[in-house]
Amino acid sequence: MISKQDLQAVHERIKPYIHNTPVLTSRLLNEMSGAELFFKCENFQRMGAFKMRGAANAILNLPKEKQEKGVVTHSSGNFAQAVSLAAKSLGVPAYIVMPSTAPQVKKDAVKGYGGKITECPPTLPEREKAAQKIMERTGATFVHPSNDLDVIYGQGTAAIELLEEQPDLEVVVTPVGGGGLIAGTALAANYFGKNCKTVGAEPFEADDAWRSLQSGKIEENATTNTIADGLKTQLGEKNFPIIQKLVSEIIRVEENEIIAAMKLIWERMKLVVEPSSATALAAILRQKEKFKGKKVGIIISGGNVDLQKLPF
User: Fold this and answer.
1) Contact yes or no for 259/253 (Cβ under 8 A)
2) What is the pTM of this model?
């Protein structure tokens, strides 16, 4: 496992390429939850999500000769944008495989950040096959959106910043999709917190991480019928052991709870957040007794919302 010093070094390395995002509070949401909530607003991160951190760290960690040949990833959204922008900031070519069904707004954003898009049919084998072809043609290095240690360590820096500002947090709650954010957060809480627990939030409709912790092996989702489109992916063999060791529990939430929490954040905090981000608040409101009277950090994972498809 990475040391505290090495994780701190990751934070220092990526600082020139990321924003130290604000931490906001809401008296009303504190009253509703019975806890003291501190929202780490990664919706204000460059490209609108925490994934900029992991992408920057992964590319910075490549040797010069590999950087020159570029990086490739497959993603339908935020990680595609993160890799494109991080690569552009570092003068590195970025090849992005996107499913043909990805929203046009996300494709446009990737192009705007300088990513070279290859479209493919919307299945994981097709995405992997397209990425493999690009690697063979260009010599580019593959960067996985969540199952890559450099990505995981980069994602953990959001929680480092949160704990620098609020060192007495007792719990940090994050959404769980591919597992990169929660694994990185758990490492940061373990090293930089004072007995600070990490809790995950996940939709019932895509609860592979909850089931994986129950069974002790990586489970797949039979269905992913959730509004939280960023949480449809599954855990990987690099982040799962960290999650098993350092994550206290995962709380599952209903779709109507995600929508209600998202609406609350929009209305009460005036923050544009995507449904995936709202799962963390939904989990706290669902199980208030667990968090009552505690200082709780929430990672607001991103704010890249398709405004044509708001759920309220």
Assistant:
1) no
2) 0.96
